[in-house]
Amino acid sequence: MSSSNNIDNSNDNAFQQFQQQQQQFQQQQQQQAEAGMAPRQDFKTKFSKKMARDPMVPLGTVAAFGVLFAGLGAFYKKDSHALQRFMRARVFAQGVTVAALGVGAYFGMTGQPEEERNSDKHV
């Protein structure tokens, strides 16, 4: 009996903490809006903006993981020649991803006009 009461109390406490955190988050967003700051963005919005800005990085990452998992399939089938090709392809995909990161960082620091940098802050 007492263990079920303890579980109920801990669930109630967790729910109350969640509600308090939610209220604090809403208050922070309201204060940011009043101060003229951009509201906090969710993952989907951030990802779509970054994907539009530099699409090669996520695509290269997905390609590297795809090749890695295909290579694991070849490993389980004990096909050493296919495994070697997949691992070489994975290294190539990772290299392309790292190169895309470097190019994006270089142009992000030097190639973007001042008005474009300022417009990104307000979106």
Integer-rounded radius of gyration: 24 Å
**Tally of helical runs:** 5
Topology pattern, helix = H, strand = E: HHHHH
- The portion of residues assigned to helices is over 70%
Distance between the termini: 55 Å
Output mean pLDDT.
76
User: What characterizes the major β-sheet?
Assistant: none
Parts with pLDDT < 50 across at least 5 consecutive residues: none
Gross morphology: flat
Instruction: Return the structural class.
Output: mainly alpha
Q: In total, how many beta strands?
A: 0
SS strand fraction: under 5%
Explain this structure.
By secondary structure, the protein is mostly helical. 85% of the residues lie in helices and 0% in strands. The protein has five helices and no strands. The protein is flat and about 60 Å long. The termini are far apart.
